[in-house]
Amino acid sequence: xxxxxxxxxxxxxxxxxxxxxxxxxxxxxxxxxxxxxxxxxxxxxxxxxxxxxxxxxxxxxxxxxxxxxxxxxxxxxxxxxxxxxxxxxxxxxxxxxxxxxxxxxxxxxxxxxxxxxxxxxxxxxxxxxxxxxxxxxxxxxxxxxxxxxxxxxxxxxxxxxxxxxxxxxxxxxxxxxxxxxxxxxxxxxxxxxxxxxxxxxxxxxxxxxxxxxxxxxxxxxxxxxxxxxxxxxxxxxxxxxxxxxxxxxxxxxxxxxxxxxxxxxxxxxxxxxxxxxxxxxxxxxxxxxxxxxxxxxxxxxxxxxxxxxxxxxxxxxxxxxxxxxxxxxxxxxxxxxxxxxxxxxxxxxxxxxxxxxxxxxxxxxxxxxxxxxxxxxxxxxxxxxxxxxxxxxxxxxxxxxxxxxxxxxxxxxxxxxxxxxxxxxxxxxxxxxxxxxxxxxxxxxxxxxxxxxxxxxxxxxxxxxxxxxxxxxxxxxxxxxxxxxxxx
Length: 488
Hints:
alpha/beta; 4-stranded antiparallel sheet; 14 helices; 33% helix
C-alpha cells in the first residue's frame, strides 16, 4: 500500500513539474528594465496583399514571412493618411497630420519652399535619443529638406538616404543625370536624381538603392553593437514606390507573372525581403536579435495602377476606402510577442509613439500632445486596445474632401462626392454593402464624431503643388459644412 501511494505521489509531482515547465515556456516575458532595440521597417506604397504573410499569391517574401509567423500579424493596422508624407509625419510625431498642418505631401524639391514638420513637434526619435538610444534613419525622409528639418536635427544620430519623396534606384542613372544637370547650371535638380547623402554629405552610391539601404542597415546594427546602447533604427525603404525599377536577377524569379508592371513591382518587394534577411543575420551575429523588436508595415496602400494588389480591400493609395490606409503589419520580438498569432483588432500608426516610448522607458513631456495610445498590454493580452474609439482618415481633393471613420465594427465613409455610406467592416472588409439606411443612427453618430475631430485641424502649411494651393483658396476648401451633411 505504501509503495503504491509513493509511486502515485511521485507521478503527480512529475506531472506538476512538467505542466509548470510547459506553462512557463508558453508564457510571454513581461517588459523589464532591459530596453529593447527597435527596428522599424517601413515600405513605400506596399499593397495589403503583396507579402506572403498577408496572402500574396505571387510575390515571394520568405524572410518577412518567417519573422511574421514567429511574431504577431496585425490584420487591422491603419496609417493616418493614404499618402506618404502625411503618414510618415504621424509616425514621427504621434499626431494626426491634419492637426499640425501636414495633410499634404511636401512638393518635389521642397527645399525651395523651405518647409517641413514643425520643429516644436518632438519626434519619437528625439524622445528615444533622450532615453539613451543610438538612433538611425535610412532611406526616404520626406519631412523637410532644409537644415532645421534634417534627420540629424530631428533626433537621429545617423542618416543615410535622401530627403525628398522618392528616388531613382540605379546609381548609373541618377548619378549620371546629376552630373549632366549640374554642369548645365541647374540650381535645383529633380530630387529623384540627387546623390544620396550620409549625415549631410553627398556620397557616391554604387548599388541598387534598396540594396544600399540594406547594406547601411547592417552597418548601423554593427555600429550599434559597439556603442553598448539600445538602438532605434528607422529603415525607410522607398520600394516599391515608383519609378518601377528592379534588378535583372530579381526579375528572373517572377517570369511567370505576365504583367510587366506587376513583375517589376514583385521583384522590388523581393529586394526588400532579401535586405531584411541580411539585417536579421547581422542582429544574430552581434547577439542583438533576442532583444530586438522588429516592426514591419507600409506607409499607405499600394497603387493599383503600378502593379500593387490590395485584395480584399477596395481601391488603393490615395483613397479613404480600406485599400488606401489599411496596411500589412507585424511585430516580432522573441519571448515578448506571441508567435504565430493574429491581432484582429484595429490599431493605428499613432500608437507607435506612446507604445515605443513605454518599452524604451522614455519620458514624454506633459505638453507633448499624442493622438495615439500605449497598446502594448493589449497586444500581449490579445484584447481590443481601441474599443469604442475612433480611427480617422481624410484626404482633400480638388473642391471636395473624402473622409472615413472606423469605430469597432462600423465604418462611415464619404468618397468621390457620393453620399455617406456605412459598412460593417468586420463582416464586409471589401466595403460592398451600404448599411446607412438600415442603421441611420449609427451613421449619424459616426459622422458627428468625424465633424468634431475636424475642429482640431490646422490650415495646411504647404501643398504638393502650387496649383493645389490656388485651388484650395479659390474653391473655399476644406468646405466642411458640405462634407458633414447627411443626405436624406
